[in-house]
Amino acid sequence: MTSNLAECINFVLKGTRHLPITSVVQETYFHLVALFPKRAASYAGQMQGGHVWCAKVLQEINKAKARANTMHIVCHDRDNLWFRVTEFDKSHQGITGGQYRVHLRNRTCDCGRFDALRYPCAHVIAACQNLRLDPMSYVDDVYKLEYMYNVWRHIFPPVPDERKWPSVSLAPFKLLPDRELRRKLKGRPCSTRIRNNMDIRETTNQQKLCGWCRNPGHTSRSCPNRNS
Question: Rounded distance, CA 20 to CA 120, Å?
Fold first, then answer.
């Protein structure tokens, strides 16, 4: 949810970018065939062991609990669950302190991690400890093993032999290239950059100067002073 999808695909399908398109599709399909049952079995085994949340979230929450023990909490509204959490500087850990507003009822925190990641940050955990609330109740359901298992439990059916595929007629279709997308063989390529005020000449009557003698009226190819 927080990573670049293109980089994730490049990591999983490393080495297939230089193959023909049919080989790329085939490699993608059979790679997912092997990956989905493996991940589904892993999450199913964790659920049978009594686990509810994924290990990554539990690891991050344990780190946040260690930070929350050193914070100062002030409850401003007990009914609406408004808090002010003060975090002190920890230069050896690279932590810059400050004051953060935590609203548990709206599930928001000024640091932004609680709003973006949907699991409690250190400031939210500190506020929960002030009222003895369970911070796991503020973790989004998408981090449950049940939800992850439902993603990976889908199967990819086996592909039949290519000789048994039904024949497809391409008669009504004309597969012709788009000549407008063809790259020009000669000349300079057309610029697609959006022009602005920097590209406008200061004076409209300004002439182009020769690249050799810097005089107007001719170019560097037809410059009479080029040989001299």
Answer: 46
Separation CA 142–CA 19 (nearest Å): 36
Q: Which of 66, 48, 64, 44 is nearest to 56 (CA)?
A: 64
* Residue-wise pLDDT tens digits, 13-48: 777 877 888 888 888 898 889 989 999 999 999 999
Total-model pTM: 0.59
DSSP 8-state code for residue 134: -
Beta bridge partners of 84: 74, 101
Q: How far is CA 103 from CA 49, 57, 60, 128, in A?
A: 34, 21, 20, 11
Residue 54 is encoded by which pair of tokens? 């994924």
Buried b / exposed e across 17-54, counting CB within 10 Å, b at 16+?
eeeeeeeeeeeeeeeeeeebeeebeebeebeeeeeebb
Instruction: Return the DSSP state at 213.
Output: T
Nearest-CA neighbor of 148 among 33, 13, 41? 41
Cα 54 versus chain centre, distance: 20
**d(C-alpha 4, C-alpha 91), whole Å:** 30
Residues 115, 102: contact at Cβ < 8 Å?
A: no
Length of the chain: 228
* Token couple for 202: 């200061």
- Half-sphere exposure of 43 toward its Cβ, with a 13 Å CA cutoff? 20
Half-sphere exposure of 20 (CA within 13 A, CB side): 2
